[in-house]
Amino acid sequence: MNLTDPIYTDADKAREHLEAIQWPNGPVCPHCGNVDRATIAKVEGKKKSHRDGLYYCNACAGQFTVTVGTVFESSHVPLNKWVLASHLMAASKKGISSHQLSRMLGVSYKTAWFMSHRIREAMAVDPKSRGPMGGEGKTVEMDETYYGPKDDQTPRTTKNKSTAHPKKPGYLKRTVMALVERGGEVRSFHVESANVETVKEVLFRNADRRSTLYTDQAQFYKQPGKDFDAHRSVNHSKDEWVRHEGDKVVHTNTIENVFSVFKRGMTGVYQHCGEAHLHRYLAEFDFRYNRRSKLGVEDTERTVMLLEAIRGKRLTYRRIGEAAH
Ligand SMILES: [Zn+2]
């Protein structure tokens, strides 16, 4: 990226950039959906006039700018800083801390924190909008990992045993479960604990049962795995990491690499993450992985994809401020 690009330094240029991404065929009224250019006019103001990016819709008599209905709406932060923050978050493989963003953007830590959470909201995918992963002849790897202490350290049932830190018995960690299709996308989830029920919930909702499923030897994968075309596991406790079965290579290295990037980001960059926000950080890492350079997506294009996704998320991001951080 070139930091001297006007879209990062000039609010008007940033707005034009955003308009080109959001409205490739001309302005769209967010109030009534009107796209008829003849009935949408730029509002001429007193001073900055055309530079405000304000439009008037004749169809519904409403006014709007390109940020109405997006996670950038109602913000006093100049748009060039939003565009820059979006680029930094889209391009940093392990994420970027709010302290770092604050310094680079010249905004307060609190503002940087809110901006990064709004951008994470844009990165999140509506579960209803996506189809099943895998399918006939496809391989899906599933694994679980533990990150950070749970807020509630009271063990409730024996099911919680799986969330105990192996070296600190009784110390309950947050559980993350994820599925990855080889050569495809990842989906990560924060779950209460790893057990047959949560495995079923994540697996059956997200993976096509005609897939081949690869996991480790954990008990909770065995029963749900029976519903799949084939289920193979490697026994890590017996130091088995890769097994060849004919033309099949059984391993869970793909998902373990995903977890490795996530953990390096969470310990090295973010350090502190409230349990209530964990799913947002998972969405951030999933967003980048699913648009990784191995799939032919480079930083600039990944940022454009992010700036496309800022719309239609505002109902959920409003909750962010309510949860403690
Ligand atoms: Zn309208």
Largest sheet geometry: 6 strands, mixed
Q: How many DSSP H or I helices?
A: 11
| Ligand kinds | zinc ion
Low-confidence stretches: 317-325
Helix content: 25-40%
Structural class category: alpha+beta
- The dominant shape is elongated
Q: What fraction of the residues are assigned to beta strands by DSSP?
A: 15-25%
CATH architectural name of one domain: 2-Layer Sandwich
CATH topology description of one domain: Nucleotidyltransferase, domain 5
How many extended strands?
11
CATH class of one domain: Alpha Beta
Please describe what this structure looks like:
The protein is α+β, with helices and mostly antiparallel strands and 325 residues long. The protein has a domain at 129-258: 2-Layer Sandwich (Nucleotidyltransferase, domain 5). 34% of the residues lie in helices and 18% in strands. The protein has eleven helices and eleven strands. The protein has helices at residues 6-9, 11-22, 79-91, 98-105, 109-123, 196-206, 222-225, 253-270, 278-289, 299-308, 314-317, and strands spanning 40-42, 55-57, 62-64, 139-149, 164-165, 168-181, 186-191, 212-216, 230-234, 243-245, 248-250. Strands 4, 5, 6, 7, 8 and 9 form a six-stranded mixed β-sheet that branches. Strands 1-2-3 form a three-stranded antiparallel β-sheet, with no helix packed on it. A hairpin with a 2-residue loop joins strand 10 (243-245) and strand 11 (248-250). The protein is elongated. Bound molecules: zinc ion. Zinc ion is lined by residues 29, 31-32, 34, 57, 59-60, 62.
